[in-house]
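Sharing a chain and its predicted structure for anyone who wants a worked example. Both blocks are below, sequence first, tokens second.
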Amino acid sequence: MVEEKLPAVSFFDRNFGIQGPDLEKVFATALGRKADYADLYFEYRRNEGVSLEEGLVKNCSQSTANGVGVRVLADAKTGYAYTDDITIENLELAARTAQYIAHNRPSQVPAAVSQARGEAHDLYPIKTPVNDVALEKKVALLYEIDKFARALDARVKNVFVSIGGEYKVILVASSQGMVVGDIQPLTRLNVTCIVEENGNRQVGSFGGGGRVEFGFFIDGKDYERYAREAVRQAVLNLSAEDAPAGTMDVVLGPGWPGILLHEAIGHGLEGDFNRKKTSAFSDRIGHRVASELCTVVDDGTIPSRRGSLNVDDEGTPTHRTVLIEKGILKSYLQDKLNAGLMKMPLTGNGRRESYAHIPMPRMTNTFMLAGESAPEDILRSVKNGLYAVSFGGGQVDITSGKFVFSASEAYLIEDGKVTKPVKGATLIGNGPDVLTRVSMVGADLKLDEGVGTCGKDGQSVPVGVGLPTIKIDGLTVGGTAAR
């Protein structure tokens, strides 16, 4: 088990018995058929989860995993192989397997493996990962949350609480001589409450986390806020009416509603989709794609955030990348393969789920910058519309940009005032089109609480989202009530 940040050579030697000369030998094998580039991604991961249900801790799990992935690039082709038995023999076998995709071209000579260099950032300087906190303390916290939530409202019938921690060590070495490592802790606390009144049962959930220590939840009693919010949402749903259907102005609240921005617009700005010209944003850099009120960034350098990284999974330092500036498309999110083929700069967005997966362009923390309007003025400007405060599931088609999102908390806006809570509201639209309909942007930018997970091509990675209050003119709302 790795307990401290180690130089790369020591990391190989102490944990896998592999040193610099061994890596050079593997790279020589990987480039043997004259490929362009090769890299190794070492990973050690320790996961822990504890959950409470019906007043009892019913599940406690711990697991460890380690392995290494070998990638070989030749033009647009990728060869990839991996092993969870990290020996020099298995690394060479994986390298031979991956390099079969290489073309016949002038031979590439691997550079000497350099001494390890530290990460470019220090975004999460954690002394004690959550995994190293005594199990008794975590169990006591779960019981405290259960007791606190039940005392908030007599209608609370059940409480589900879970805390999960991950301690991950990565090290990336490339045929260009780069060696860089990082230790990436991650923690999440979730609270779900079920309430019942006259046979009507409703659910509310809330949670948070990030690359933080255990004290993040208890020092300021944030866990109490999570419980209050979960109970509030569940009780609110007891009185919610069926949502109306039709075309109307929609106001999105700050924070988690940024998931719509992430799904409907963010994925379409990832480099692989645009290189293959399968995105609605392909070949549109320099063109207006949104209202001039909209500036969208992806920023992997925000301290302690769930989507932040010191280096991405290819060893590139993360960046703050302006994607859309005052409505003009400025950039795509890139990994090494797509940046090279598109002749664009790296943005530090090469990410993968584990050593068993190839890296690809992925978001980190994606959000719209704050505007100048007061949130109350935005609401006041809507005569009849919908105020969506939180979202559940959603779907988006990258090629067309069409999306459907389900609002988990929403209200009617009548004559500029927020009135009745509604249920069953879905937002239907087109990502590139919806940004052109943004007519007001609030001054209240908020990032989500730290619970986002993004899926793409079967891989899941932690991400962050954010949004100020915004007004979208004439969006289609699906609902069960006639308007």
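Comments welcome. Residues 1-5 have pLDDT under 50 and may be disordered.
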